[in-house]
Amino acid sequence: MPDSRPIAVLGGTGPAGTGLALQWARAGETVIIGSRDGQRAQAAAETIKRKAGSQARISGMENSSACAAAEILVLTVPFESQAALLKQLKPAIRAGSILIDATVALAAGVGGRASRTLGVWQGSSAQQAAELVPKGVSVAAAFHNLSAELLNGDEALDCDVLVCSDDPITTQLTRSLAAKIPGVRAIDGGKLENARILEQITALLIGLNIRHKGHTGIRITGLPPEAYAPASKS
Question: Going along 14-119, which residue ranges are E strands?
């Protein structure tokens, strides 16, 4: 069943943001596209609605308005924009919100292509986000390793999503959102500090995709069936 709470995808006009928004809109979720430019957000929402169907519940707003309208926030911006955006949005983020961070600190290599992760003082992009959000906002790291191109398409994905968070309820909610994407299994990846490993895997996958001209993902094998089962709501 769809969650009754809206999901605000901040920086949602980029490929990763529009892809996640499309998948959740198709699953019946209420989705808000957030952007620095409200009109651009509205245009992206209309494009997604045409793909998801007229029944899709999706709208577009400026980022701060999107934060004020939702308690589930998904951050899909480049690392160089993450800190400044979260500082700007801090007054608009509602108490008790959940922030799901998909940011990866990538360094550009030859030709501008990402080749490695940058060192982040806090350990990972998600841990940096946890320091920047208001007190009482819980943070999860997830969705780094899903192909944006496949998310924006019509086929099921062949990928697992690892969710890292220090809060079990946040982990559960994020896993339930991941499981709404066809072909995706959602696995508890442990504490938020493990997000640094997810980001390093992302850099590796990007390199593989460049080298082999593909859209690779990851699958975790050998765990008991309950580890892959969609998380139930409390």
Answer: 30-35, 57-62, 72-75, 98-101, 106-108, 114-117
Asked if residues 76 and 102 have their Cβ atoms less than 8 Å apart, the reply is yes
CA separation for the pair 14, 194 (Å, rounded): 25
Distance CA 47, CA 59 (A): 10
User: What average pLDDT does the chain have?
Assistant: 90
Is CATH 3.30.300.30 what the domain over 7-227 is classified as, yes or no?
no
| Residue carrying structure tokens 């079990």 | 168
Tokens representing 208 are 């593989």
Q: What is the dihedral of CA 231, 66, 30, 171, to 10 degrees?
A: 0
Structure tokens at 182: 């066809």
Interior/surface letters 203-215, b for 16+ CB within 10 angstroms, e for the rest? bebbbebeeeeeb
- Could you tell me if 64 and 11 are in contact, meaning their C-beta atoms sit under 8 angstroms apart? no
pLDDT, tens digit (0-9, with 9 covering 90-100), for 72-83? 999 999 888 999
For residue 34, what is the DSSP state? E
Torsion of CA 67, 70, 75, 81, to 10 degrees: 0
DSSP annotation string for 36-56: SSHHHHHHHHHHHHHHH-TT-
User: What is the value of pTM for the model shown?
Assistant: 0.91
Contacts of 209 (CB under 8 A, 6+ apart): 147, 215, 216
Write the CB contacts of 167 (distance below 8 Å, at least 6 apart in sequence). Answer: 138, 140
